[in-house]
Each structure stands twice: as structure tokens, then as C-alpha cells.
Amino acid sequence: MPNSYEDRILRVLSYIHDNPAGDLSLDTLADVAAMSRFHWHRVFRAMTGETCAQAVRRIRLHRASIWLVNDDRSIDQIAADIGYPNTASFARAFAEMFGARPASFRAAGRALPPVSTLKSGDFRMYPVAIRQEPKRRLASIRHVGAYYKIGKVFENLVAICISRNLWPDVGGFVGVYCDNPEVIPEDKLNSRAGVIWQGDVIPEGLEEYNLPGGKTAVMTYKGPYAGLAEAYQTLFGNWLPNSGEEPADMPCYEISLNSPRNTAPEDLLTEICLPLK
């Protein structure tokens, strides 16, 4: 049904992700949703828990945080590319959400040298535990492309869970990263955005994906998602070589312990899971 409420939410979220520098006013998003401005605002907030303006701000600034750490474009260019009229207004909004101005956030995120030149003492440390992880059955959506863009797929997954009231059967959110980004071209990277599915039948439009469980190194990372790349450097460049453990031939996955929709970036908790032999 092309004008179902789920479809409208998915269209609008995709439009925001695909056009961060574009006109994302309430009128424009209501047009994308094919609803009146007044009613669309109420529907979006009731179904997602955010106003359209809050969703736009969160998505834009999250994209900026990724670019600040992983991209060489200037702060002025990043501000323009996510739709802020000037760098000053971008810096104020970013500091309000992330607790640091863009330049400071970039400097902190790039504090480490390239992995190839790192020595053991150069890594920032995060706690790692070896656990026996359970088998997990996921209801998922496949993503092909840059890993940092999987946020768009998670937004769609959340919208589907909300519109269909799937929460009673959802046990948490998991991202599975199937390829090595240092080897595979960015546009060919495979990953999955999933929920731990506790129901019987996988919902229509989602795909089943099974995590086998077993012996796993679990690193608990606290902070904005832009810092996850550094956490992986610590896991593979420091912990693993000194652990005496061997990684299994299975992809890493991440378990989100809270949500950026209601958690400050510095308080986000992510478990990075590395299956072991």
C-alpha cells in the first residue's frame, strides 16, 4: 500500500538521510509524506517519539560527527553539506549535542596515528571480556555500502517496528559487519541492521540472519558512534595480539545497549563482539 503510514515514515526518513543539505522543512517533509503539514507533524511525532525538527537535527549532526573523524573536508564544508547556513550555527548545535565544538571533536577523534604505525601503548583502552554468547536469530535489512551509512537502514528498521508494533518480539538491536573495510571497496561492503527476533515468523520485508554464538570477545565502548572505528583499532591492534586468542572466521557484530533517540552521544553504549575459535 503506497500511502500506508509505515511507507510514509520510511519515505521521509530516507529523504532526510539522502538530502542532509536540502530543504528539510516541515512543509517539504509533509509533501514527501503526501499528508497535510498539520496532520503529518502529529503522525510523525506519535509514531517515532520525535518531532520532524528533532529527527532532522539528530540525523544531520550524527552525519557531521562521522565526517569530522573520517573525512578530510573542512568544517565549513561539513556545515554546508549538512544544511547549516553558517559554521557558527553548526558549531553551536554540534556542541549542544556532543558536548564539544567540531574542531575539538575532530582533534579528539583523530588523536591516534594510522593503524600501521601504532604500538601497543598508543591505543586508548576499552574493557574487553570473553563470554559465551548465545545464538541469536535476527530479523534484518541488508545494507551495501559505507558502514557509517547503515544508520539510515536502522532508522527504517525502527520505523517498521513502530508502525507494526513489533516491540514485544524485539530483544535489542544488532549491526553485523560482514567485510573488512580495509580490503573491500566502500561501495561493496556488506552489513546488516537487525533486531534480535523473539517471535516465530520473521516479519514481511525483513530477512532472517543467524548469529551462531559461542566464545566471543566483547568490548564495551562508551561514546558517540563516530568513535567506533577507534575502538576497533584497539580491539584488533592491541587486545587481540596480546590475548593469546584466535578470531573465528565469522563477522564482527555490534549490540546497541541504548539508543541515540533518547541518550546523549557521550553516554551511548555499544558492545563490539568478535567471535573467537
Can you tag this structure with a few keywords?
single chain; 277 residues; alpha+beta; Arc Repressor Mutant, subunit A; Multidrug-efflux Transporter 1 Regulator Bmrr, Chain A; eight-stranded antiparallel beta sheet; 21% strand; transcription
| N→C terminal distance | 46 Å
Apparent shape: globular
Unreliably modeled segments: 111-121
Multimer state: single chain
The ordered H/E elements are HHHHHHHEEHEEEEHEE
What is the level 1 CATH name of the largest domain? Alpha Beta
Number of domains: 2
Number of helices: 9
Radius of gyration: 19 Å
Strand content: 15-25%
How many β-strand runs? 8
Largest sheet report: 8 strands, antiparallel
Which structural category fits the helices and strands? Answer: alpha+beta
Sheet with most strands: strand arrangement: 1-6-8-7-3-4-2-5
How much is the average pLDDT?
89
CATH topology of the largest domain: Multidrug-efflux Transporter 1 Regulator Bmrr, Chain A
TL;DR?
The chain has 277 residues and is of the alpha+beta class. The chain folds into two domains: 5-109, Homeodomain-like (Arc Repressor Mutant, subunit A, Orthogonal Bundle), CATH 1.10.10; 128-275, Multidrug-efflux Transporter 1 Regulator Bmrr, Chain A (Alpha-Beta Barrel), CATH 3.20.80. The protein has an eight-stranded antiparallel sheet, covered by helices on one side.
